[in-house]
Amino acid sequence: MTEQEWLDCGDPTRMQQFLDGKVSERKARLYRSACSRHIWELLIDPRSRTSVEVAERYADSQASPEELHQARIAAGQVVEENSVYDVPFTAYLATEDHSSLLRVAETAANHAGGWLYPYSVILHCIFSNPFRPSPSIPSGLTSTVVSLAEGISTPSGTFDRLPILSDALQDAGCEHEDILNHLRGPGPHCRGCCVVDLLFGKS
């Protein structure tokens, strides 16, 4: 895959294959969690939803390995009890300890109309442009930028405030078009957003 193919790609299967084995476990976990979030209304068992929430917190060192282990057990129980296998399995995938991205979007889309394109948008949101180094952020970020970014990165994910964050970054001296345009884009956006991670130095 070339850089232009990546930027234009709407096929998450190709994108997952290209990234597999090249990303951090944290980013991979947040991607798997985001795919579960995309079919949240289908995860009707609270154990599945809780498992995804624990996985997200674990990715940012806000949950312990034991909490993640218990979440994995609970998510696995839902899979075993459910005749609709793929939907709860997405929650189980979020709790697994590996960096694989393979088959994630396909699994999430299987009982959600089969439409794969939104997962390519999620991949772009989390992994940005893997062909280039991360852009630089102006030093001395304002309290407004930090406050907005912290609120957006919480489990509640106030992603509707991303355009406001874009304006605040621009006011702070950021002129990088890709950063500003990403924050102003329609999304879907998710936890692990490449720009918010960049502000906090996360990978």
Features:
203 residues; 2 domains
Structure annotation, total helices: 12
The helix/strand order is HHHHHHHHHHHH
Please compute the radius of gyration using only Cα atoms. 17 Å
Please identify the structural class as seen in this structure.
Answer: mainly alpha
Tell me the major beta sheet. none
Morphology: globular
Question: How would you portray this structure in words?
Answer:
This protein has 203 residues and is mostly helical. The chain folds into two domains: 3-127, no CATH class; 143-200, no CATH class. The protein contains twelve helices and no strands. Helix 4 (46-59) packs parallel to helix 6 (86-95). It starts with a helix and ends with a helix. 38% of the residues are buried. The mean pLDDT is 90.
Question: Would you spell out the secondary-structure blueprint of this structure?
Answer:
Layout: H1 3-8, H2 12-19, H3 25-38, H4 46-59, H5 65-81, H6 86-95, H7 104-109, H8 117-127, H9 143-152, H10 162-171, H11 177-184, H12 194-200
Helix pairs in contact: 2-8, 3-4, 3-6, 3-8, 4-5, 4-6, 5-6, 9-10, 10-11
Brief summary:
With 203 residues, the chain is an all-alpha fold. It has helices at residues 3-8, 12-19, 25-38, 46-59, 65-81, 86-95, 104-109, 117-127, 143-152, 162-171, 177-184, 194-200.
